[in-house]
User: What shape does this take?
Amino acid sequence: MPAKPLYAAVEAGGTKWRVAIGRSPEMVVDATIPTRDPDTTISACVEFIRESGIPITGVGIASFGPLDLIPTSPTLGFITATPKPGWSNTDVKGRIEAALGVPAVIDIDVGGAALGEWSWGAGRTLGSVVYVTVGTGFGGAHLQNGRTFHELGHPEMGHITVEREAGDTFGGSCPFHGTCLEGMAAGPALLARWGRPGPELRNRPEVWDLEARYLAQAMRTYDYVLAPQRIILGGGVMQQPGLLQMVRDRLGERLAGYGNPPSNLEEFIAAPEFGQDAGLIGAIALARQRFEGL
Ligand code: ADP
Ligand code: ZN
Assistant: This one.
C-alpha cells in the first residue's frame, strides 16, 4: 500500500512563521522563522522544507492578512495592502509553489485555525461553527460543514458595531472605526484604555468585567446572525483566567431568554483545543481539505 501523502504546514504570521510536516495534528520537524522581508522569510521557509528531505505532495498556508481570497481574482492568494513594511502585494502561495514544485492552498490565519479546530479539535462533528480570536487584532471565521465562503473576501468579525458599556469613556483604538469591537476589546484596546498590556492587568477585576461585557455583545451578534452550534473563543486575551466563564455569564444576560438560546452556554462558548498550534494545525487541515477532500 502506498504511503499516505505528507504536507508542509506553514503558519505565516506577522512576527514569526512556523513550518512543520505531517498530515494530522501530530507533525514532525517543526521550525520557527522570524518574519523579515518576504524574500528572506519565504526562502528560509522553503529551505527548511527542502532540507528536511521528506517528500511532500502539497503545502497548506494559514497567513496573516489581508489576503485576496476572491476565487476569480488574478491576485488570489496575495497578501494585499498591509501596513507591514515590504509585504503589500506579496504572492506567498505562488512563490512557495514555484520554489517547491508542488501545489499550495492558502487561507487567512483565522480561517485555517477554524478548520483545524473543526477537523480535530473543539469543533469536531459540528455542522456550523464560529471561531473567534481576541489578540492583537480580533478575527473570526464561520464554517458551515467545514467550508468558509470567500466570494467577496473573508469576514471581518472584529469590526462590528458595539454599544458603549455604562461607565466606559474610552475613545476606541481602531484606526478605521474608533469604537468598533476590535477598537474596544482587542489587546491594543486593553493597553490604550488601562495603560498596561493584558498580562499585567490580571488582578484588576474591573478590567475583565468590562472586557466580558463587550465580548458578550459580540457573541450575541454572532449567535443571532449565524446561529452556530458552537463559538470557539481563543487568542492571547482569552488566556486571562476566568474570562471565558465571565463571557458566558454576560452572554446569558444579554440574550435575555430570546431567540434560540443555546441550552448549555458551557458547550456553546468553548475554548480552542490547539492554542498556540492552531495556525499550524489549521494549515495541515487546509492541505487535507484541498488535496484529499477531508
Ligand atoms: P496575535 O493576535 O498577535 O497573533 P495573540 O493571540 O497571542 O497574538 O494575542 C496577543 C495579545 O494578547 C496582546 O495584546 C497581549 O497583550 C494579549 N495577551 C497575551 N497574553 C495575555 C494574558 N495572559 N491575558 C490577557 N491578555 C493577554
Ligand atoms: Zn474597526
Notes: The first strand starts at residue 7 and ends at 12. The beta strands are 7-12, 16-22, 28-34, 58-63, 104-108, 128-134, 138-144, 230-234, 269-270.
